[in-house]
Automatic annotation (TrEMBL):
<dbReference type="Pfam" id="PF00440">
    <property type="entry name" value="TetR_N"/>
</dbReference>
<dbReference type="InterPro" id="IPR025722">
    <property type="entry name" value="TetR"/>
</dbReference>
<feature type="domain" description="HTH tetR-type">
    <location>
        <begin position="15"/>
        <end position="75"/>
    </location>
</feature>
<keyword id="KW-0804">Transcription</keyword>
<dbReference type="GO" id="GO:0003700">
    <property type="term" value="F:DNA-binding transcription factor activity"/>
</dbReference>
<keyword id="KW-0805">Transcription regulation</keyword>
<feature type="DNA-binding region" description="H-T-H motif">
    <location>
        <begin position="38"/>
        <end position="57"/>
    </location>
</feature>
<dbReference type="InterPro" id="IPR023772">
    <property type="entry name" value="DNA-bd_HTH_TetR-type_CS"/>
</dbReference>
<dbReference type="Pfam" id="PF13972">
    <property type="entry name" value="TetR"/>
</dbReference>
<dbReference type="InterPro" id="IPR050109">
    <property type="entry name" value="HTH-type_TetR-like_transc_reg"/>
</dbReference>
<keyword id="KW-0238">DNA-binding</keyword>
<dbReference type="InterPro" id="IPR001647">
    <property type="entry name" value="HTH_TetR"/>
</dbReference>
<protein>
    <submittedName>
        <fullName>TetR family transcriptional regulator</fullName>
    </submittedName>
</protein>
<dbReference type="InterPro" id="IPR009057">
    <property type="entry name" value="Homeodomain-like_sf"/>
</dbReference>
<dbReference type="GO" id="GO:0000976">
    <property type="term" value="F:transcription cis-regulatory region binding"/>
</dbReference>
Length: 225
């Protein structure tokens, strides 16, 4: 019994160390970029020695891959609304808000995608698959809104709209860094990115949708780490 209890306690400690290491890596990658962060700095921030870090993650690339897996898992929860909510505007808008919160939490993946892929080339096919799945969810969301009479897109305009929504949704952080010379993407930029995507939909929203949108409370982005 004592041995089993000891193994359980040891497992909890290892799990907590792994969690703390990943959280430290995420925050450092977000603040400095993947290329400028060393495993030594990650270990120091997590309060462990570098050897302990290597027990859990043999390379910096394995940390990047593990964080992408966490991002991937959270993104899987961003499906278009189901049931009766399919035909209501608010749940679709909430999915958009949650996407921006998620990209903010893992912003290092978007600030310099080239550096991320150079560090962990194995992520490329997973990025392609995730992109395809999220675009499919956006397509389903637009179809549900059209069915409810909340959006009306002229023939030939749906594909360009969907492409632009994905481009802006996945590239807004990189745009701020490269084009607007924003040195540090901050929480205040979340609303800016969210509004860029929302503005793509606005010309196609019907009158009932515009009324519903105006009645929604301002989206909250505060307190996101």
């Amino acid at each position: 019994m004592r041995k089993a209890a000891g193994r359980t306690a040891s497992g909890r400690v290892r799990g907590e160390t792994r969690r703390r290491t990943l959280e430290s890596a995420r925050m450092l990658f977000n603040g400095r970029g993947v290329a400028r962060v060393t495993t030594r700095l990650i270990a120091e921030t997590a309060g462990i020695n570098e050897g302990n870090l290597y027990y859990h993650f043999r390379t910096k690339a394995s940390l990047v891959v593990a964080l992408f897996a966490a991002f991937e898992e959270e993104a899987a929860g961003l499906a278009a609304p189901d049931g009766a909510e399919r035909h209501e505007l608010a749940p679709h808008v909430e999915v958009l808000r949650r996407w921006f919160v998620l990209t903010w939490r893992y912003r290092f993946l978007f600030q310099d995608m080239a550096a991320v892929q150079a560090e962990a080339p194995s992520l490329r096919p997973r990025l392609v698959r995730l992109s395809a799945r999220l675009q499919a969810e956006t397509r389903r969301s637009v179809a549900d809104l059209a069915e409810a009479g909340l959006i009306a897109i002229p023939p030939g305009f749906e594909e360009p709209l969907l492409a632009n929504v994905w481009i802006v949704s996945s590239s807004w952080i990189g745009f701020l860094v490269l084009n607007e010379r924003v040195r540090a993407v901050r929480e205040t930029h979340l609303r800016w990115g969210y509004n860029q995507v929302l503005s793509l939909y606005l010309p196609y929203l019907t009158e009932p949708a515009l009324v519903a949108l105006a009645a929604l409370p301002e989206p909250s982005f505060s307190g996101e780490a």
